[in-house]
Design goal:
about 180 residues; alpha+beta
């Protein structure tokens, strides 16, 4: 089971028992405005099935979907709850087929925005992908109006590669990180 620790965060697989927490995050239309065609997750059952799907993909090493959890409990005797998800997976083409290009992605509940969690979590999972999976190119995509995600891409040291229609549906901004192997 993949677990990564950063200074402030624990990145670990979602647990099926956390479906209600995930539903709280992903049923928020503001959180979902740039994800999944802008549609909130429709039900708790759908969210639980999504977590099961993520578990299956991780078991098959086809993608990693990790809960972003604060290292420190929110208060005395409380268990920290996930703030969102960081993802490392193959980018899909407009028909949903894997392209072989790897994507780093993130999404957080609104109360976690603006604290640097997305950058911290994404950097940790990118480093793992480079060091453990041997990835040499990692990309991130966003809708052009998603300025906050573009800023995260820039903070990650990714380069602006322009706009593309190669992934998902519609035109997206594309950023990339190319790992230079020592000669």
């Amino acid at each position: 089971m993949l677990q990564l620790k950063t200074q402030r965060l624990l990145l670990r697989p979602w647990d099926a028992s956390e479906a209600a927490i995930a539903y709280e995050i992903y049923s928020d239309p503001i959180v979902m405005q740039y994800l999944a065609e802008g549609k909130p997750m429709p039900s708790l059952d759908y969210t639980a099935a999504k977590i099961f799907h993520w578990e299956k993909l991780m078991a098959q090493q086809e993608g990693w979907y990790l809960a972003i959890v604060p290292n420190e409990p929110a208060g005395e005797a409380s268990v920290p709850q996930p703030l969102g998800t960081v993802v490392l997976k193959q980018l899909p083409d407009p028909q949903g087929r894997p392209t072989g290009d790897w994507e780093i992605g993130w999404n957080l509940r609104q109360s976690a925005w603006g604290h640097g969690y997305a950058t911290e979590a994404a950097r940790s999972l990118m480093d793992w992908g480079i060091n453990e999976l041997g990835l040499r190119d990692i990309y991130a995509v966003a809708q052009p109006v998603n300025v906050a995600s573009v800023r995260v891409m820039q903070r990650l040291g990714m380069k602006d590669l322009g706009r593309t229609g190669k992934y998902y549906e519609g035109e997206l901004v594309l950023y990339g990180l190319q790992v230079i192997s020592p000669a």
